Write the structure tokens for this entry.
Amino acid sequence: MLGPAWNDSTPAARCDWIDLLRGWAVLVMIEVHAVNVWLRQDLLPGWLNSANGLVAPAFILCAGFGLALSVFRADGSMSPLGPAAKRLAVILLWAYALHAPGLTLADWTVFGTPEKFRELSKIDVLQCIGVSLLILQGLARCLRRPMVFAAAALVLAVGTCLAAPHLWQPGVADGWWLPIRGFINGNPDHGVTSLFPLFPWFAFAAAGAVMGVLYQHFRVLSNVNAARWSESRWLAAIAVGGGLLWLWGWLHAREALAAAAFPANAEAGSSNTTLASVAERLGWVCVIGASLGWVERHRGRWPGPNAVQAASRESLLVYVFHLYLIFGVLLVAPVRSFTGWEPHALGWPGTLALTSALIAVNLMLALAWQRVRTRPVLARRLRQSGLFALLGWFLAGGWFR
């Protein structure tokens, strides 16, 4: 007997499993950056490198999933464009700010160099998410019907993966304007290597959007006062579908490598760019997300707020803060000379201690900001104070070095 949970068709008010997947993705992303910065490279095991490669796909998939649920309302209407446009603008602003020559006028003028300005053209995960959501937002508002939108998003996801290996061939997009060509592939150009070009990374956002539409259809919309599926049935379907995706991707990725389908760019093709590699990682993400949802439904509740869900709901804040903490504080020369934490110089004990501390600090920040959000006046004042402080630092900071 499957139990009452299998037949509990109460419509979902919030998607816990995607919240947990996003929360864990952003926390493990902190581990990825900490390990890549401080751990001695000869100590990095291959399995950890492969596991870390699932973080960005999960993060991007969650963004597409959330977009589908936010654009198409349960009553059949569409959400206003204004709040969505504001959110996208904030994501893209931070995406490019993280690769800016600096946070001061001095960095943009006296101390600016062509190399620093070219870094603005590097497409990282936030640029990929922002532009992917912009594309999906426009597609949704043009088509206006959830299932038609999901079908179009699925076609785009597959097409992106099929085109990617060809677009990653040497010479493709060379000579294009750098801010645009970085969305095409990750081949180096003028010293800039984009980490998350749309081909094939857009496929994870599009796949997330498809899943978001299906989740709304099966779990949110009422069919005679009940959802079509229970949450347990949905999680089982996600796990089975993810397992089949992983198996298909794993088998075909190995066949492609054995046949050397794209020998001129075999390394990139085997890691990121093929339909099989995307399917393999997408399958893993689905299985992990379903497992997190199942555990959440059956575990005992701990007292106090859920720190992982707080990190999920404040994922942009945590993402930006941990990067500035690592690269803007801990890796500056005075701090390195004081602590002795040089890049690629620590063993596992030191790296794990630093990683744990970074995760703890970011969790406390997420929980604190969640409490601040319950007081809108205080939240607005803190945002304004932060903006004034940044403006003051931009004008006055960095002139004396």
In short: Residues 231-259 form the longest helix (29 residues). Residues 109 and 118 are 14 Å apart (CA to CA). The chain has one domain: 4-299+322-348. DSSP finds 19 helices and no strands in the chain.
